[in-house]
Amino acid sequence: MVLNSIEKLLEKYDNGETSLKEEQQLKAYFAQDNVAPHLESYRVMFQYFKTTKQELYTKDVPLKPKRNNVYQWISVAAVAVLMLGILIPNILGGNDNLTLADLSDEERKMYYQTKEALAMLGSNFDKGTSSFNALSLASESFNVGAKKASHVNKLATTTNKLLKNENK
Length: 168
Description:
- This protein is mainly α.
- Helices cover 76% and strands 0% of the residues.
- Helix 2 crosses helix 3.
- The two termini are 14 Å apart.
């Protein structure tokens, strides 16, 4: 009779339906020396839970994190570069109202080449973005497939439970 109730408690335990009191009964049963041979695998599991509960972490944990001054200096350097980038053109007083007509032929030619190069870069960037969208679609398809595969896992679990009940 005791063995039958232990097997019922184990089935509830496997389904995650046991109360704390029922789990204590299981722990007490598997702590004793005479356990049914077909339940030995559960005995190992409950002994593992008992030993890991007694383990302690003894390594010291530092309370203050180490400060890394490199990142502070990088941020200071970045601010200095930004300020120089803003102040130098204002101090040197570059050509503020320069139009395309004021440029020489060579400068206009360089301007148009740069404009053409940036347009080509922009179109290639758009192509790369569309490829990225294709990757996100593939990722979504993979997630849907993984979700469907989890249904197969649930089916296997249910089948195992049914087979387990038939063997009793």
